[in-house]
């Protein structure tokens, strides 16, 4: 029977730290929440190398007294609660007293702090849970927390950290969400020496949204302000036309605390029913205000999960609040025009009379002269010695191009100076190089003697052209189209029913797959800017090479947006944004897939969006060409998702169905 041992304090601290500190973003979240609880109005966060080597959080809050600085780094030491009854109504972001203790257990921490009632500040250092320094310091009111070498004493956790870019994006996501939950605080985020975020702190949520997500996203929102049964919902929701492919841009805050609530997400989705397409989701930034005693935030160490005493009240508040906001948005302004005449049919037209007659001058228009262009051949006399071969020229293309070299074809028996006409031939630019190559081939001669040279022409060898074998297309007859979706065609005694969307999708998919020399890309006249969440932005930036192979030229554009400059020629510019968001969602959920599988999925999605849709009008000529292309390619029998492209019904089956035969 193994003995039960009491773990030493430093080992217990390392285990407890794993519940709170998972990555650099966890440190930033806990430290920033402490700054908010301290009453700060200006908070600056700076990181280097994704926050793994350096994190600095500075605020102008109340600071920490020197007598309390050691207690701040002891487990379960906090100023937020004092009795058990305080847990029933938690009004602060932090309350457990585990953050600083957990951070100091796995990193090197340095604190500069000064309380308003103190005349001098305090400098405190602690590494791996062991105190190193406690001394006086000159510093302003507030607290500066510096964290270096995260997980320096736990290498097992260090190897599970992601790239610096990914960790930095995770930290940026934390700052974004905190900035949206507290628009009254000015946040400044510095990433590897570059400022990437600055919110004004004017108390307006729109200002914070503009700073975090940009102008385009901020202009696509509808305000919501609703109260019901003691619960209020304030914030913004996206217009139905700006729906997204996932829920990553749905942000719910409970009493200015970021939470994950299934109740709120379901209520939001239901309120948009019949307003957006199936499979699309709205975006939102909603702050719920609920009495502290009606919610339990002490569920998980991350404090993202909460429990409501009355979930129906929360659901109803969000549902009806969003419904009212959408109904107001549907209202259109009306313009009333005054009725000038009771019967305008008999009204006399009014003549415009200028104030001064001298202002109008009648200038007769000059008659345009017609210029007649005649095609002519210019003949110029020229003296020259003729002792070389001059090739013949095909004059049938002379009208396509510019004047070119003079070619002479008259025979000369002996060398002499003669008066000859010079014929200027118009040679098309496209065939200049071809003519030069023909001249080189036909001008291969044997030169013997001196000037009296006999020119021997060598006939060019004509290589037979190799023609590709054309696929055999059976005879068919288009019968018609049903529901603007299915094509009916009669072919070889069978009735074929073709799903035009599935067939077209497969054709486009095959073209994208067999593009060995690269997919034909088109440059967008107006590049498409796509606003993403920090997680989506991170996965797109880390997979730019895959997107380039799929035919997309994507560049990072700021800290939460990317810009698409090129896309496959089969994709319309209006589909680029949704396709990129869907791709980001797939890459987030399937990070471990092979590159070939990721490319294949992008080809599937691109082909589906580019294919003709069910219900689109198609004329008879297009139906015939489409069917001929389908019959010529045996691989077009199933769509990329595995659905059948066509179904066949024989004449015998029809006759048997109608009782003509037994």
List key phrases describing it.
alpha+beta; 5-stranded mixed β-sheet; 662 residues; 8-stranded mixed β-sheet
How are the secondary structure elements laid out?
Elements: H1 9-20, H2 24-37, E1 42-48, E2 54-59, H3 99-105, E3 108-114, E4 121-127, E5 130-137, E6 142-148, H4 155-158, H5 164-181, E7 186-191, E8 194-198, H6 205-213, H7 215-218, E9 221-228, E10 231-238, E11 250-254, E12 257-259, H8 262-271, E13 284-289, E14 295-296, E15 307-308, H9 311-330, E16 379-385, E17 402-403, E18 417-423, E19 426-427, H10 432-442, E20 476-482, E21 486-491, E22 494-499, H11 500-513, E23 521-531, H12 534-541, H13 544-549, E24 553-556, E25 561-568, H14 576-589, H15 595-610, H16 620-632, E26 646-650, H17 651-657
Parallel strand pairs: 1-7, 11-13
Antiparallel strand pairs: 1-2, 2-6, 3-4, 3-6, 4-5, 7-8, 9-10, 10-13, 11-12, 14-15, 16-18, 17-19, 20-21, 21-22, 22-26, 23-25, 24-25
Helix pairs in contact: 1-3, 2-5, 5-6, 5-12, 8-9, 11-15, 12-14, 14-15
């Amino acid at each position: 029977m193994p003995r039960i041992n009491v773990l030493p304090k430093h080992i217990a601290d390392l285990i407890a730290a794993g519940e709170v500190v998972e990555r650099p973003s966890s440190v930033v979240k806990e430290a920033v929440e402490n700054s908010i609880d301290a009453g700060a109005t200006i908070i600056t966060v700076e990181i280097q190398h994704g926050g793994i080597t350096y994190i600095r959080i500075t605020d102008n809050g109340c600071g920490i007294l020197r007598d309390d600085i050691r207690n701040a780094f002891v487990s379960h030491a906090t100023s937020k609660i004092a009795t058990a009854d305080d847990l029933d109504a938690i009004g602060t972001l932090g309350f457990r007293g585990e953050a600083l203790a957990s951070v100091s257990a796995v990193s090197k921490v340095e604190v500069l702090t000064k309380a308003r009632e103190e005349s001098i500040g305090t400098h405190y250092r602690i590494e791996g849970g062991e105190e190193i320094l406690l001394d006086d310091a000159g510093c302003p009111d507030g607290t500066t927390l510096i964290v270096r070498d995260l997980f320096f004493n736990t290498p097992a956790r260090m190897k599970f950290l992601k790239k610096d870019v990914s960790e930095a994006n995770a930290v940026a996501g934390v700052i974004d969400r905190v900035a949206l939950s507290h628009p009254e605080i000015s946040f400044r985020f510095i990433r590897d020496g570059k400022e990437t975020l600055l919110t004004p702190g004017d108390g307006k949520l729109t200002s914070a949204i503009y700073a975090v997500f940009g102008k385009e996203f901020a202009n696509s929102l509808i305000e919501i302000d609703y109260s019901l049964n003691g619960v209020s919902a304030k914030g913004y929701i996206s217009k139905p036309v700006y729906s997204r492919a996932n829920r990553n841009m749905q942000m719910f805050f409970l009493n200015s605390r970021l939470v994950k609530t299934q109740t709120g997400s379901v209520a939001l989705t239901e309120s948009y029913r019949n307003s957006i397409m199936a499979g699309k989701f709205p975006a939102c930034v909603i702050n719920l205000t609920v009495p502290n005693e009606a919610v339990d935030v002490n569920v998980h160490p991350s404090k993202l999960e909460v429990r409501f005493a009355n979930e129906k009240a929360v659901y109803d508040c969000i549902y009806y609040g969003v419904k009212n906001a959408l109904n107001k948005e549907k209202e259109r302004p009306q313009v009333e025009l005054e009725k000038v005449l009771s019967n305008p049919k008999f009204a006399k037209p009014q003549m415009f009379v200028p104030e001064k007659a001298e202002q109008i001058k009648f200038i007769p228009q000059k008659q345009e002269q017609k210029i007649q262009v005649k095609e002519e051949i210019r003949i110029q006399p020229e003296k020259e010695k003729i002792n070389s071969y001059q090739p013949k020229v095909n004059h049938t293309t002379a009208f396509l191009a510019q004047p070119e070299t003079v070619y002479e074809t008259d025979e000369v028996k002996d060398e002499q100076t003669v008066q000859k006409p010079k014929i200027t031939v118009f040679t098309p630019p496209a065939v200049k190089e071809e003519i030069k190559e023909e001249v080189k081939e036909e001008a291969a001669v044997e030169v013997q003697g001196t000037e009296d040279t006999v020119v021997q022409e060598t006939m060019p060898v004509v290589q037979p052209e190799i023609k590709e074998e054309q696929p055999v297309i059976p005879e068919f007859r288009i019968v018609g189209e049903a529901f603007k979706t299915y094509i009916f065609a009669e072919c070889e005694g069978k009735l074929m029913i073709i799903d035009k969307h599935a067939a077209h999708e497969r054709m486009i998919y095959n073209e994208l797959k067999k593009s060995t020399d690269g997919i034909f890309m088109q440059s967008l006249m107006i590049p498409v800017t796509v606003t993403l969440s920090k997680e989506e932005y991170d996965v797109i930036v880390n997979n730019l090479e895959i997107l380039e192979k799929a035919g997309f030229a994507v560049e990072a554009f700021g800290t939460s947006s990317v810009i698409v400059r090129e896309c496959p020629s089969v994709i319309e510019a209006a589909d680029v944004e949704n396709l990129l968001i869907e791709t980001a969602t797939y890459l987030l959920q399937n990070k471990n897939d092979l590159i070939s599988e990721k490319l294949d999925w992008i080809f599937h999605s691109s082909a589906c969006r580019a294919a003709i849709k069910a219900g689109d009008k198609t004329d008879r000529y297009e139906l015939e060409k489409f069917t001929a292309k389908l019959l010529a390619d045996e691989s077009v029998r199933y769509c990329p998702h595995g659905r059948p492209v066509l179904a066949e019904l024989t004449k015998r089956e029809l006759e048997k169905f109608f009782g003509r035969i037994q």
